[in-house]
Amino acid sequence: MSELEQQPVNEQKKRPKFLLVLCILTFISTGFEFLGSLLKLVSGPLNNDQMQSQLVSFQEEIDKMKEIGADSFVDSMQTSIRMFKQVNENHYLAAFISIIVCVLGAYAALRMFKGYRLGFHLYIIYSILSFVSIYAYVSIGNVPTNYVLFGSAISLVFILLYSRNLKWMQ
Fold first, then answer.
1. Full-model pTM
2. Which residues contact 22 (CB under 8 A, 6 or more apart)?
3. Is residue 123 part of a domain?
């Protein structure tokens, strides 16, 4: 570690409470995602029977959506089914990538919590990876647009919220 990283943040400046709240939210989010990914890694991919059961359930939902005329949701659901199949086919890669991304996010929040701007830059990388990493094991056409839009919107909001605390960080 460099000498600059070993020095604590100026004690006269107290950590902003808003930064504390954001870091706690990030720790909770990355913690749950990490535990979920570990459980997925341990449990392994779905077998054929489990996959068929899930696909039947998805098809029932699609049929209900067709009945009420929600065709745009039907297309999105069919894309989600294709994504679900590819995630299951690449189960271990998906879980491994998710674990790495979660660790990066928690580390970034920890660095910001301790007052280092490096954490903010790492958080930006984490935010992008959190919704883009799926393309490592799912083809572009099988990722629903709303997945990308929602992930990027949440990431952008948190990046903007964290950026309000950059003055405090070294």
1. 0.84
2. 109, 112, 158, 161, 162, 165
3. yes
